[in-house]
UniProtKB/TrEMBL annotation:
It comes from Pseudomonas laurylsulfativorans. It holds the Pfam family DUF2889. It comes from the Bacteria. InterPro entries: DUF2889. This is DUF2889 domain-containing protein. The lineage of its organism: Bacteria, Pseudomonadati, Pseudomonadota, Gammaproteobacteria, Pseudomonadales.
Amino acid sequence: MSVFRRRVEIMTTRASDAGEVRAALEDDFHHFRVWVRHRAGAVSAIGGEALRHPYSLCPQACDQLQQLLGMKLDRVAHSVTRQTDASHQCTHLLDLAGLAIAAAARDTRQRRYDIEVAQRIDDRTRAVLLRDHDELLSWAVNGTLLEGPSPYTGINLREGMARWALSALTEEMAEAALLLRRCTLISMGRAYNLDEQVHAMNTGLCYSQQSERAEQALRMKGSTLDFSDKPLQLCAQDQAWLRQRD
């Protein structure tokens, strides 16, 4: 059976009041890296890299991460959305930056998330998240509605879930839940031949899909991969980079 998979790996180093975080993300549609340096509790330098991406202009969004410069380290990954307008960022670069900054704030030295969302049958699927090899979340999903378990039963992935998660869950459970939410929604793209697109849609939801550049953001044909039977390949190319220190 076809399975959508994503892996996120984060590694941090700290010396005195300064440090660096490196984070990598890979799934069927994306392969991104973000690095964050911080000093005295704030982001002092940041950068990103787009190794595999759906549209030709996605790499330009790496520069948008500079809007996070000076941000105070925050243990809540979602806090990056208060620092910058997410619709003018690459969704996945910004998510990754938020995870990296939260790891720095919590002094989490190493973290790995593994997500899998099974192929939908009659619009139903199961979405699973492992954190550091241990299963943390397993949702029964019908369309965009969570059918269980509690406390997620009845939550709609598209209607106010972020607000609910940030108020009802611990910061680290909210982080995991919002990551699984993102993956459950984007996994729906596996039902379509995305290479039939000529360019990004003008939705205004992310950097490449803004009206002023959507038609110039050409589809990167062949950029979708299938890791259903190859989970160990996710982020395999990032291991040396994650451990490298300047």
